[in-house]
Design goal:
Elements (H helix, E strand, L loop, with lengths): L7 E5 L6 H11 L5 E5 H9 L3 H5 L3 H22 L2 E6 L2 E2 L8 E2 L3 H6 L2 E5 L3 H10 L11 H21 L3 E5 L2 H12 L6 H17 L2 H4 L4 H9 L5 H9 L3 H12 L3 H14 L4 H11 L7 E7 H11 L6 E5 L10 H13 L6 E4 L5 H6 L2 E6 L9 H8 L6 E6 L14 E2 L13 E6 L4 H11 L5 H24 L1 E7 L5 E7 L5 E6 L4 H10 L4 E5 L7 H4 L4 E9 L3 H11 L6 E10 L9 H5 L5 E10 L11 H5 L7
Parallel strand pairs: 1-3, 1-6, 2-3, 6-7, 8-9, 10-11, 11-12, 12-13, 14-21, 17-18, 17-19, 19-20, 20-21
Antiparallel strand pairs: 4-5, 15-16
Helix pairs in contact: 2-4, 6-7, 7-12, 9-17, 11-14, 12-13, 14-16, 20-21, 21-22
Pfam families: AAA_17 (PF13207), HAD (PF12710), UPRTase (PF14681)
GO cellular component, one term: cytoplasm
Protein name: Phosphoribosyltransferase domain-containing protein
Amino acid sequence: MASNKPKIVGLYGVPGCGKTYLKDELKSSLAENQYAFYDGSEIIATVCGHDLEAFKQLPEQEKCRLREAAIRHIASQCAESGKIGVVTGHLMFWAETEAEPVSIVTPADLETYSHIVYLDVSAERVQKQRREHASRKDRAGDSVQHIEQHMQREMTKLRELCVANCIFFTSVQEPQTLARLLTDFVAVPDAEVEEINIAQALSNLDEQLQSAQTLGPHDTGKLFWEELHPENNPLDAMFTSFGYSDKAFRQAMLYYEQHRQEIFEQTCDKVAKHVSLYQEVQKMLQSAASRNNVGVVVVTCGLGLVWEKVLQRAKLACEPVIIGGGQLDNGYFVTPEVKASVVERLQQHYHTHVTAIGDSRLDIEMLRQADQSVVVVGDPNVRSRSMEVVLRSEKDLLRGDVRQVLLPASVPMLDVPGLPVGTLAQLNLSAPKHWSLDVRNAGGKNTAKILMSATRDATVSGRALQEAHRKVGWYLATEYLPDVIGLESFKLSHVQGGYTAGHRLRDESKTTIIALMRGGEPMAFGVHDALPRAKFLHASHPSDIELGHIRGQENIIVVDSVINSGKSIAEHVNRIRTFNLPARIVVVAGVVQEQAIQKETGGLPKALLGYGRLSIVALRTSANQYTGRGGTDTGNRLFNTTNLD
């Protein structure tokens, strides 16, 4: 359904900068069912019932009331239509004959606008356009210097107001930039921002596979703004106001977007020349890059282009994958959630053992997800001051091997109990020897106890037992797969009209369900009931699985009724792994023998080749190592063939 607070974009700029022309150009090129365009002055005239000349003669208090009524009228229309509003407006008026500008911003403006875009064209161009248009003759005498001063005063004040009121702000110099901003940034539904952003970042990771102060004692974002505007780093005030939220990182992207691409790239190049790696980090990267079983991925909330240039100078034996922030064309911004998602994808889809190295609170989620975690402790004057406090409360949540590394070795260690000091040279970069099994056992749940009753009842067989297995498959798929794989949102029609967000399994349409014949088929049908957009495949033997069946798939779900020794499941998983696809593999089963899934001695991990990660979802586990035959064989009971041995 339509949101109560619509998205309203204020298109600001000094008189004569071309706002109205740009608004009309956008109106003719963008979808009219998604955007509504307004001239602020015309709406004021409509609301007050007089022309603008009459409006100008009103007392200031009445003008303010009418301006507020106008912006609220626009917001009401957009809320009703569900469209994004684009409104031309002004923050202040300032003729050169006046000592100070006259501010016309109202509280209603700051409550209503979700985004403000400033048209930052050259003062010379504004002066020329004023002289050429009859409607601007009253401002034709303003000098270029005054116009420039007016623009800078207005942009500075707008930036302050937007930060204080959590309004997105940026400036544009070219019309096509604003069109792209509206379609690629503003139009993205708020509820989908995080999901789409993570998907874009992971897509970039995938492409590169076919950071920041952790690598060196430098804040690349701070260095970027010191190069461009030494007296004004907009990120400081913005993060203070917005916190480290998705909105904050999106706003940072807009700040970078204000600069032409060539200026952005030149500044990144200058910053990169000031950045050096910790010597210990460079040695570790050289060691990792020289091994054919180790890859290097740099994930930074800062500027990816800067670290790309820094690492090019390091001349590593292999090219590292870099996931970092940038301008709008970058396609994504990096948040703590993105960092953790990158680690998870490397683990679950590429079946790797991940060592994560971080130095700030923005790295906590990533460190928590990793198999081995390193907290870099730098100089007290530049390191994250909040990291020590956060680690004291989060230390127990970090899993696997966790340590702190002092860079340089002379700096004081973090006072965190249970966080030992180590060195980067001590990191284990050899290939893991055992598979990692993540077993989700429903056996203790009351729902599972009800469902398993029919599957264990000797009087139930044939179609009735098939139906019981089907219900088990549906239950396990809906209860556990959303946590194992994740969810994605989609737009659906609401019964009360309009649209609302629905949810389904992440990449459901890129999921293949493999039923191991014949005992796994009924349960697999239940999984398919829960995931109707997934593909379905029967497999009697591992060779039945061909590349064409699973190419391009994100999730592969292997279903069997019972896992005894684990040998059959291992053969099918090994077959899938031979195709070297970046896909998550999940096994769904009714009963899993406990011996089969023991960490090092179990039949399943011993039969699996190489190293990888496997999630197993089971209705129950069993210590009973009995293997059914004839009348007790699950397949025979399912299909009324208990007379067969």
